[in-house]
Write a structure and sequence with these properties.
Layout lengths: L11 H7 L25 H8 L14 H14 L3 E5 L2 H12 L5 E5 L4 H13 L3 E5 L4 H7 L4 E7 L11 H10 L3 E5 L4 H4 L9 E5 H5 L8 E5 L1 H15 L5 H11 L2 H20 L4 E5 L9 H7 L7 E6 L4 H14 L4 E2 L9 E3 L11 H7 L5 E5 L5 H12 L7
Parallel strand pairs: 2-3, 2-4, 4-5, 5-6, 10-11
Antiparallel strand pairs: 1-7, 6-7, 8-9, 9-12, 11-12
Helix pairs in contact: 1-3, 3-11, 4-5, 4-10, 12-16, 14-16
This protein binds pyridoxal-5'-phosphate.
The site of pyridoxal-5'-phosphate has 15 residues, from α4 and α9.
Length: about 400
């Protein structure tokens, strides 16, 4: 059955498997990979119309490619947006958004707890072009409201955040943005459309790092923006054709296929994460566990309402320690004792990954900045995968059980 002929009203689990483009003349069931940089034109007049955007049709893969189109359609169907546009990475998606929507003199309000490279992109790179950003508390709505100025064009949020899984209220931020004549963009990397649909909550733009859960097996870099058809056609598609941070066809094909299993992966990895988070909370060497699915999480009620009752697959926890040095030594001991988990800084992989944020993602901050962000030396992030949960618990226990000996 051609993807173009799907009946209306299908469940997201069906859309995740079935949405895409029509098969080629050969009728392949698994989507074809269009690994080509250009497309042969039937005649010169058709070519001219296609280049002038007067007729649909592929010309060159910086402009569009069928494997990329297939991924964009499937992701838009899952996010509930009119359209999507693929990019070479998650950061490229945020770059494309900023280049498309902001100009010199504009102002942005952004959560202080967003992904580290996102902080740098807004503060340093966009700052060079006269776009000013005010960073505010992830959870204090009054601080967001107070930061809005007459030239504020964009509110930018990420929920839950990395690594402390802080949750912000997307619907409240959307109302605030729209009252100020601004747009709300939400980085939905951690929750994915399986748990949270920011467009339905009022957001205007959803950002994805396809590198994480959308691929799901840690193979390729990819990104995307999901938003209105008009914004894609009139702003982002012409811009990406000029600026070139396009999604490679091979990577698009990998994440397109990844979306087929997104729902079962995210749910199963989240089930594992809840089990591991509860166990960590009861371990005598653990100080605090940060996981939206636990009643001890400061925004537990909001997270459960906003994420369909599921906490996600990323946990952070701190080991008990009397000093930052001891915290670091104990965290390193836990990391170095693991024999199943991978010591790596990605997330959303079916393999469980553990990392030490204070010396990796937050390594370039000063100790004072890290303390302010809550990224203490004893903090460990676990991006939970699909292994049997007790095997992961035993792997973490290997190090945790020996922490008291490290003085
Ligand atoms: C990884 C990540 C990004 C950046 O994505 P890349 O594909 O690595 O460029 C952006 N936001 C969040 C929340 C991420 O985890």
């Amino acid at each position: 059955m051609s993807a173009d002929k799907l009946p209306p009203g299908l469940h997201p689990d069906t859309l995740a498997v079935r949405t895409g483009i029509a098969p080629s003349a050969y009728g392949e069931n698994s989507e074809a990979l269009y690994l080509t940089s250009c497309f042969v034109q039937p005649d010169a007049a058709t070519s001219a119309r296609r280049f002038a955007n007067e007729e649909d049709g592929y010309t060159y893969s910086r402009t569009s490619n069928p494997s990329v189109t297939a991924f964009e359609r499937r992701l838009a169907a899952l996010e509930g947006s009119e359209a999507a546009i693929g990019t070479s990475s998650g950061m490229a998606a945020i770059l494309l958004m900023g280049m498309g929507l902001l100009r010199s003199g504009d102002h942005v309000v952004c959560s202080r707890s967003v992904f580290g490279s996102t902080l740098n992109l807004f503060a340093k790179e966009f700052g060079k072009f006269g776009v000013e950003t005010t960073f505010v508390s992830q959870t204090d709505l009054a601080e967001w409201r107070a930061a809005i100025r007459p030239h504020t064009k964009l509110l930018f949020a990420e929920t839950p955040t990395n690594p402390l899984t802080e949750v912000c209220d997307v619907a409240a931020l959307a109302t605030m943005a729209h009252d100020a004549g601004a747009l709300l963009a939400v980085d939905n990397c951690f929750a994915t459309p399986v748990l949270q649909k920011p467009i339905a909550l009022g957001a205007d733009i959803v950002i994805h790092s396809g590198t994480k859960f959308l691929d799901g097996q840690g193979r390729v870099m990819a990104g995307a923006l999901c938003t209105s058809r008009k914004r894609v056609d009139e702003v982002f598609a012409p811009l990406i054709r000029t600026a070139g941070m396009v999604l490679a066809p091979f990577n698009a094909w990998v994440v397109h296929k990844g979306l087929e299993t997104l729902s079962i992966r995210v749910r199963a990895q989240s089930d594992n994460a809840l089990q591991i988070a509860r166990w960590l909370e009861s371990h005598p060497a653990v100080d605090r566990v940060f996981y939206p699915g636990l009643p001890s999480h400061p925004q537990h009620a909001l997270a459960m309402a906003q994420q369909g009752g599921v906490g996600g697959a990323v946990i952070a926890f701190s080991v008990k320690a009397d000093s930052p040095e001891q915290g670091r030594a104990r965290a390193f001991h836990v990391l170095d004792s693991a024999r199943v988990c991978s010591l790596a800084t990605n997330l959303g992989d079916v393999k469980t990954l553990i990392c030490h944020p204070a010396s990796t993602s937050h390594g370039r901050l000063t100790e004072a900045q890290r303390q302010a962000a809550g990224v203490v030396q004893g903090l460990i992030r676990v991006a939970v995968g699909l292994e049997h949960a007790p095997d992961i618990q035993n792997d973490l226990a290997r190090g945790l059980d020996g922490c008291a000996q490290i003085v």
